[in-house]
Design a protein that fits this description.
The chain is 36% helix and 17% strand. A hairpin with a 2-residue loop joins strand 20 and strand 21 (417-420). By secondary structure, it is α+β, with helices and mostly antiparallel strands. The protein has 13 helices and 21 strands. The structure holds glycine and manganese (II) ion (2 copies).
Length: 439
């Protein structure tokens, strides 16, 4: 029998927190369907973040029904035990095992979801469910709600209204608990150590894929289940593609390498980017752009404090990047004119920050009531300014074409200021030049 890796009281406490937020309602969360990779091979399975967040249950074919204050309150619908399938694909908990190991009030075969849920929804006023992400399951929800309406026929109340469950659970996820902070610290630390191993193995002629493999090996050797998102290992001008996916080119001396990669440990991920020279030495223009970007990144990190609004971070970034772009003759004109005409966007098209947690772009609103949200203790966010100059940009000075740089760290907001969870990955020029290419 498999044992859950995370103590189940973690999940029970989260459901209890949610209880206060949705009296009279029910929440329905379903597992993502398994995806075919090719012929009869599936992509490796990773549970839906919100379902895992509230149950710790990681099998496909699962649904959670949660009805605060009613009996049963928490119900898991799961795949039944099946000796034949388990011989091929491995252990399943089944309803009995789910009930025994996951601290829910009841567990049933997934086949009974529609009938039982129709009945159990008679007692609630509305449901929370993430519509339009799974057409097949949306149809099941439609049938279930029609079933409930049929059961309450003479009440005149019609079909239960559906509210989006994503922002609801996002509000729970946005402030990290001590357990979550400890796990995120581990994920960031494991990610940082793996980045160092990638730096050591970098030299001209090595393939991007080889370095991707080293990252995977090093994080898994330290207990990570997988990478938290597709790693970006981008040499030379490949680094100007923001989410470069190919990772299959040989590295060239004289180029920079951008590595954006994070380890997922117990469903929490790091998200770190480092940029460094393939040959182990920055040339003068690379060093100049890098040092300016690093100084800017460090100053933005210093501004991550309680009460600062999210949009301030982007404002500081744009201000700093415009000065950088003017200094290296990428853009000409006054800072104010450049800010207004948005020419900087061509070289910096993304935001400087996002929440980080179980998803790399984690849940939680960055705006509240139409205003940018203030930072609070327990939020974890990235700080990731960058500059990307396309190889074919004839308006850029020739020596800058094909340069792509990003520096990204994972920052916890604390009472006493920013805490950098990913500081284990070096980023000073002197440190990088000591490590890169030295196994
Ligand atoms: N790795 C994706 C991001 O930095 O947002
Ligand atoms: Mn990021
Ligand atoms: Mn990243």
């Amino acid at each position: 029998m498999r044992k859950p890796r995370v103590p189940i009281n973690v999940f029970r406490e989260r459901r209890d927190q949610l209880k206060q937020m949705i009296p009279g309602s029910a929440l329905i969360l379903r597992a993502h369907p398994e995806q075919i990779r090719n012929h009869d091979v599936h992509h490796s399975y990773r549970q839906d973040t919100n379902l895992f967040y509230l149950t710790g249950f990681d099998e496909p074919g699962t649904v959670l029904l949660y009805r605060p204050g009613l009996t049963p309150e928490s119900v898991l619908f799961v795949r039944v035990k099946d000796q034949e399938r388990e011989t091929w694909d491995g252990f399943r908990y089944g309803p009995e095992g789910a009930l025994k190991n996951f601290g829910v009030d009841a567990a049933y075969p997934i086949e009974e979801f529609e009938k039982l849920t129709s009945e159990w929804l008679v007692a609630v006023d509305k449901i929370y469910y993430n519509l339009f992400t799974d057409e097949m399951f949306d149809r099941k929800i439609a049938k279930t709600l029609l079933g409930t309406a049929a059961l309450r026929r003479r009440s005149g109340r019609g079909i239960l209204p559906i509210y989006d469950s994503y922002p609801l659970i996002g509000e729970l996820r946005v402030i990290k608990s001590p357990y979550e902070i400890a796990t995120l610290k581990k994920a960031a630390q494991v990610s940082a150590e793996a980045h160092v191993e990638v730096m050591k193995a970098t030299r001209p002629g090595v393939n991007e894929r080889h370095l991707h493999g080293i990252f995977l090996k090093e994080i898994m050797a330290r207990g990570a289940a997988r990478e938290g998102y597709g790693s970006i290992v981008a040499g030379g001008s490949n680094s100007t593609t923001l989410h470069y996916v190919f990772n299959d080119q040989d590295l060239k001396g004289g180029d920079l390498l951008l590595v954006d990669a994070g380890a997922e440990v117990d469903y929490y991920t790091g998200d770190i980017t480092r940029t460094f020279p393939v040959s182990g030495r920055f040339n003068p223009i690379q060093a100049k752009v890098y040092q300016m970007l690093l100084d800017l990144q460090k100053s933005i990190i210093q501004s991550v404090k309680i009460g600062v609004v999210f949009s301030k971070l982007q404002e500081l970034t744009i201000h700093g990047l415009i000065e950088l772009m003017r200094e290296i003759n990428l853009l000409k004109g006054s800072s104010e004119a450049l800010r207004m005409d948005q020419k900087w966007r061509k070289y910096y098209p993304h935001g400087v920050s996002h929440f980080l947690g179980s998803d790399v772009h984690d849940a939680g609103r960055s705006e509240v009531d139409g205003e940018s949200r203030r930072l609070e203790v327990g939020m974890v966010l990235t700080i990731e300014p960058g500059i990307y100059i396309p190889q074919d940009d004839l308006s850029a000075p020739e020596e800058l074409r094909g340069l792509g740089l990003r520096i990204e760290d994972d920052i916890l907001v604390t009472e006493s200021g920013p805490e950098n969870l990913s500081q284990g990955a070096p980023k000073e020029i002197v440190d990088l030049e000591k490590i890169v290419g030295k196994p």
